[in-house]
Amino acid sequence: MAKKNEAEMPENTGGLNIQNFFQGTKEELEKVVWPSRRQLVSESAAVLLMVTLSASLIYLVDGLFAWAAKQVF
User: Fold this and answer.
1) pLDDT digit string, tens, across residues 20-70
2) 2 is a domain residue
3) Contact of 20 with 27, CB cutoff 8 Å
4) Hey, what's the torsion of the CAs at 25, 28, 2, 8, to 10 degrees?
5) Count of domains forming the chain
6) Is the dihedral of CA 51, 57, 60, 65 positive or negative?
7) How far apart (Å, rounded) are the C-alpha atoms in residues 36 and 43?
8) pTM to 2 decimals?
9) Is 43 exposed, middle or buried (0-12, 13-18, 19+ CB in 10 A)?
10) What range defines the domain where residue 50 resides?
11) What is the pLDDT of residues 6-23, one digit of tens each?
12) Is 56 within the bounds of a domain?
């Protein structure tokens, strides 16, 4: 990725220019590599599976500690 020369970069006046903001936002969104539908579904399923497994593990460990606390107290 080539860097722009300092001469090519626009000067920052320090103020808020709404037109420059939206233009910059549009330029950045054009650089985004959007996932395909298949990739989106696959990765979403993986996230949901991991969240479910993590929550189940936490639930089981919590139950174990609750049981151990009952036995002690």
Assistant:
1) 999 999 999 999 999 999 999 999 999 999 999 999 999 999 999 999 999
2) no
3) no
4) -10
5) 1
6) negative
7) 11
8) 0.57
9) exposed
10) 37-73
11) 556 566 656 678 999 999
12) yes
